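Appendix B. Worked example

We walk through a single record from start to finish. Start with the input: the chain for Phosphocarrier protein HPr, Frigoribacterium faeni, length 227.
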Amino acid sequence: MPGIGIVVVSHSAKIAEGVVELARQMAPTTTLIAAGGADDGSIGTSFDKISAALSRASQDGGAVVLCDLGSAILTSETAVDFLDDAEQARIVIADAPLVEGTVAAAVAAETGGDLGRVAAAASSATGVADVHADERDLRGGDAVERSAVIVNSSGLHARPAAELVTHASSFQAEITVNGVDAKSLLRIMGLNVGVGSTIAIMATGPDAEAAVDDLVSLIEGGFGEKG
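Next comes the structure step. The output line below is what the pipeline stores for this chain.
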């Protein structure tokens, strides 16, 4: 199935590479390309690097671009302007923080999101959300509810959080964990729950019961981690 690629544009090659390295821990099969630094390796941006990255990242289903500072956005926009109309339609430059936006976009791409969903995931990293709004949305429906205890010693850190989001995204159901959207990596990571914590899972929709059963099994199985 065609996938969405992610391009990380930074004035620093090391920053771009580091962000890609971090995101790849949670999205190992997604195309993630760093386009950092000027052509001579100094601090800056490179039209040629960005253009090459766009070509590689968008060859399947399109690409989402994340940038650090204003001139990185301008250079990226210029690179997109040089593409033909069909290619331009497959590129989105996200208005999102570089690190959080890249991680959120990468997880959305890893779980099969289309261009719109991946771009929206990146943008969702901007601002502070009402973490209880998601659960209120489910309360009016015929919700399935269960609890589970975190047993892996590292708790719900980045990798387990990404795995939980991947599982949740595979079901046709609206799902919350401790009141936040189970399909949003940033909200799940923001729960900051450790070993021994009891968390509440709630779901509505066609796959609600199967989704809750799957997440309880995933959590109580320690996300495949030892201890």
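Two observations about the output. The first helix runs from residue 13 to 26. Residues 60 and 199 are 38 Å apart (CA to CA).
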